Amino acid sequence: MLPDAQNPLQAPTRRLRSPSLRALTVGLTMATAPFALPLAAHAQDLSRPVDTTPIQGAPPTPPAPSDDVQPVAFSADNVDYDQNAEFVTATGNVVLSRRNEKDQPQSVRADKVTWNRKTGQILADGNVRLVDENGNQVYTEHAELTDELKTGMMDNLLLVMRESGRMAAVKGERLPNGDVILHQAAYSGCDVTDSEGCPKKPTWRIIAKQVIYSEEQSRVRFKGARLEFFGIVQIPVLGLTISTDGGSVGGFMVPEVRSSPSNGLQLTESYYWKIGDNRDLTATVSAFTKSAPMAQLQYRALTENGAYQITGYATASNRISITSSDPNSQSAFRGYIFANGRFQLDEHWSVTASIRRATDRTFLSRYDISGDDRLRSMVEIERIDQDSYFSLAGYATQTMRSGTSQGSIPVAVPVMDYRHRFDDPWLGGKFQLQLNTLGISRSEGQDTQRAFAAGQWELTRLTGMGQEVTFTGLLRGDIYHSDQNNETTTVIYQGMPGWQTRVVATAAVDVKWPFVGEVFGGTQVLTPRLQLVGTPKTKNIEIPNEDSRAMELDTGNLFALNRFPGYDRVEDTVRLTYGLDWKFERPRWRITSTVGQSLRLSKPISVLPDGTGLSSKASDIVGRTEIRYRDFINLIHRFRLDEGSLTVRRNEFDAVIGNNRSYLEIGYTELNRDISENIEDLRDRSEVRTAGRIAFARYWSLFGSAVVNLTSRKQDPTYGSDGFQPLRTRFGAAYDDDCLQIAVTWRRDYATIGDARKGNSFQLHFSLKSIGAH
């Protein structure tokens, strides 16, 4: 492909040659100093190829004669020395290289270098390339250097920055204080060549009458700057500063614009302050046409053994309570705080903490900060080594749900879990000891304390026919105390008040028999599996249920010793579980499938409610299939069939088709468990989810997503929908190239909760690579 005519940001494309093998090398010694102009560019040309080949032919740097003097390695094809004038002239692949006092490499490369030994001035001419200690590269046709390798005057220069930005200037000069001034400069963070190496105009560039570079601060300030888009639109830019060492720079960031039914038009502006190399602060102000302004502060810090951040929001606005019948708004202070951090105290010990609190239940949704329906705060101390684990934690949750009383939400303190694993010296298996405590308190509801100690033994053996046999034994002792049990509305969760004790003993044998073979040009593994589990009848109804409520059979817990999700409920009696795993692999393809069922060999237990899939003698049939084709197609299907009528009780489908630029996601969930409406944790529902993006015209794309609730009153009598209720939808268009992002998004919310109103919202996102982000 023939190159296009050079645009104002193009330059000659002749590459620098490697030094000749015949190069004459001479060791020179010069005074130390930082080198180079880390910010410049070939005049009106940002597309000159970057020479990334290492400098060869230069000799190793000789030892420094003193702590204050650093040597310079010098090589060239030819060297002439005028003894009378004391001029040294080197021609042909001239290379000067050195390492500064921080042992960082610096170099100068040119067609010709002249050194005046009397004045110490060095003149470099022809295809001059300078590389500083930060990795920034300067290209120019002529440069004046001191004997400290500091640049003086330069003409028609180009800088290729370490962070991919490029700057061009007609002229550059160094001031007595060490600062460098560039005249008639242009800067861009965009690529200036296409995939075939042909020149192209950058999407945006900054044109400035003058650019000032501070070597001490590694900062570049623009004066008289204008931001140019697509070579046409120009916008004045005030106070722009960028970094040359890859670090962040304090200053104002690119504003955001959006609108919403609750707040009207919103303009958000942020100021970023880099306090230090390990700390920063971002202050944000949002102005609204329908409500008072809102302030936000975010502080982030890295320490020697961890990191933490603190974010806070504050405003004063009218609020409509969702916990009372009064429709009138109330003016009040409103805000939200979110802080989290993790610290590694030593090789084994760590501390993790998180705090999330809001002044009311609609603040986060009204200001589009978060859609979470609960905010969890926690602190945890952990110790982990090869054979043991210890955790001591506490949890507190703030509900955002309109129909839930905060007093019924538990505070869990303390939550302790300790596990230690050690070898079985007799049979070669593994022992695990576990100690666990849990304390739950509510201001309006049941309080429960629990502690247990458990020991588990496990042994896995392979038979001569290839079966994998696992033997398991478990013994556990529980102690509970609870009060105010009658305040728990679901009767089967209450338990008996006062002290309760329980002993749990479980024995199991699990057999897997894999068969491997070739089929359809690939490899398949067919693994029948059989498991026998026995647990003597034990207390269940008498024990309060705090952590085992969301019980449902699926392939994830089909072969678990206890198919309840927590410790408060135990699946006793004797059961036989059988299933089949199938895996197929060939180039680009992978298919996995699991199906199984369990059969209770003794009387079914009443603690399992109807609709869980386990209440009958024979369980429901569960299965899961996943199909993957490269990274382009991923299909997952989960199901549960009624063991008697084969009615579909659970039907879930998720599909992802496409690549990073264009894709389609579809999800469908139908839960038809026919479970009692009194069990709020297992209510039936149906919904469909979709999201996608279509890329076109190289950099443009359309995107969208939607969630529709298909639950009808027949499935859930407490639900007020007719079976088709959109929950949220989003559509938008975006432009995204290597250095510019622009996106316009429309979103619709379909429910009003307090002062968070339903309706249409719009957002404009704008981002420049290397500018206005941190």
Description:
The protein is mainly beta and 774 residues long. Among the domains are: 24-245, no CATH class; 248-402, no CATH class. The chain is built from one helix and 42 strands. The strands form two sheets. The chain has a 26-stranded antiparallel beta barrel. Strands 1, 2, 3, 4, 5, 6, 7, 8, 9, 10, 11, 12, 13 and 14 form a 14-stranded antiparallel beta sheet that branches. The longest helix is centred in the middle third of the chain and has 4 residues, at 363-366. The two termini are 38 Å apart. Residues 1-50 and 52-67 have low confidence and may be disordered.
Précis, in short:
The chain is mainly beta and 774 residues long.
**What is the mean pLDDT?**
85
The number of E-state strands comes to: 42
Oligomeric grouping of the chains: single chain
Largest sheet: 26 strands, antiparallel, barrel
Strand content: over 45%
Radius of gyration (Å): 35 Å
| Secondary-structure-derived class | mainly beta
Distance between the termini: 38 Å
Which parts are unreliable, with pLDDT below 50 for 5 consecutive residues or more? 1-50, 52-67
Counting H and I runs of at least 4 residues, what is the number of helices? 1
Principal-axes shape call: elongated
* Helicity range: under 10%
